[in-house]
Design goal:
Layout: H1 5-13, H2 24-52, H3 54-80, H4 84-110, H5 116-138, H6 143-172, H7 179-207, H8 213-239
Helix pairs in contact: 1-7, 2-3, 2-4, 2-8, 3-4, 4-8, 5-7, 5-8, 6-7, 7-8
Length: 242
């Protein structure tokens, strides 16, 4: 799962009810779109390496994950200070590396019967639907409902992270996840990040000033990348049922 600690930090920053950045989302959207395009480029590059040089893919995959994690925290800190000229190239590199690390899941989906390119397209379409619905619902949430939803999503996200860490721990010892459990985890992730897509339109104008649009773009980027990942995982799990 892509780094999602940014959501919890953003939710904490939004405790003030006053809007501090009424235009921050509209300012962030072009950069969100650009980041997603760069991620697609990174996926394409990763698939090319996996096909042409499979022996070096996994070492470079893990190296990219480490650099991606470091870049996330550095870029987030710079962006929150409003230093956009420095943050932009960092976030550009981060988006490309995110695509590279995502290419393993994409390759697995392409090779899974019943998923393939169609399943990837459905997951991407689901993210688009979540954006449209999230914008309509989140922009009209009351203060009470918005902060209540934020608290619920924060608790659910922490629980999901605990489950994913446990799943990774079992995998390291060679214990696979039963299909029914993978379906449940993936479905939970879909619901959580679909909720986060609604909450973004409520929280971000309360957490970031207009000039902090790159921080808002990063927060939204993480929401939709994680939503895409869990949608694709769910599609793969459903097609892998006995």
């Amino acid at each position: 799962m892509a780094n999602s600690s940014n959501f919890l930090e953003t939710a904490k920053a939004a405790r003030s009810k006053a809007l501090v950045g009424p235009n921050v989302i509209s300012n962030a959207l072009p950069y969100l779109g650009g980041g997603l395009v760069l991620t697609a480029v990174g996926v394409y590059g990763g698939l090319g390496v996996l096909q042409s040089y499979p022996s070096i893919f996994f070492p470079t995959f893990f190296a990219a994950m480490v650099v991606e994690l470091i870049l996330f925290f550095v870029a987030r800190g710079v962006a929150e200070k409003g230093n956009n000229s420095v943050a932009l190239p960092l976030l550009t590199t981060y988006s490309l590396l995110s695509g590279y690390t995502l290419s393993g899941l994409i390759a697995y989906a392409l090779g899974t019967s019943g998923v393939g390119f169609r399943g990837i397209a459905i997951a991407a379409l689901g993210c688009g639907v979540a954006f449209i619905a999230g914008r309509r619902i989140g922009s009209n949430l009351s203060e009470e409902d918005g902060f209540a939803l934020g608290k619920t999503i924060s608790i659910a996200l922490i629980a999901l992270l605990v489950v994913l860490v446990g799943q990774l721990g079992f995998a390291l010892f060679g214990v696979g996840t039963p299909t029914f459990l993978e379906v449940g985890i993936s479905a939970a992730g879909v619901f959580i990040f679909a909720g986060a897509s609604v909450l973004d339109f409520f929280i971000l104008p309360r957490a970031y000033r207009d000039e902090q649009y790159l921080s808002a773009a990063l927060s939204m980027y993480l929401t939709y990348i994680n939503l895409f990942i869990f949608l694709l995982r769910l599609i793969i799990a459903l097609n892998g049922r006995d």
